[in-house]
Design a protein that fits this description.
With 69 residues, the protein is mainly alpha-helical. It has a domain at 26-38 and 49-69. The protein is 62% helix and 0% strand. It has four helices and no strands. The protein starts with 10 loop residues before the first helix and ends with a helix.
Length: 69
C-alpha cells in the first residue's frame, strides 16, 4: 500500500534529496520512504500492528536501524 503526500522542501533540501537519491539509484520518493522507516525505527517509533503486510523492511535496513540506536 502506498500513500501520496505533498511535501514542501526548501531549495537546498530538494537539491540534496535529488543528489542522494540519484546516487542510490532510486527515486526521491523511494529514498524518503527508506530513510523515514530507518529513522523511525532508530528513534523507537512503534510499527503498525500489521506493518509486515504494509512495510518492506529489508534485513540490512533493520540492522542499520538497530545499530544506530
Amino acid at each position: 500500500m502506498t500513500v501520496k503526500r505533498t511535501i514542501v522542501f526548501d531549495d537546498e533540501a530538494d537539491f540534496l534529496l535529488r543528489q542522494v537519491a540519484a546516487r542510490a539509484g532510486i527515486s526521491a520518493s523511494a529514498w524518503l520512504s527508506a530513510v523515514t522507516r530507518r529513522e523511525a525505527l532508530r528513534t523507537g517509533a512503534a510499527a503498525q500492528p500489521d506493518a509486515e503486510q504494509h512495510c518492506r523492511y529489508d534485513e540490512q535496513e533493520l540492522l542499520a536501524a538497530e545499530g544506530a540506536a
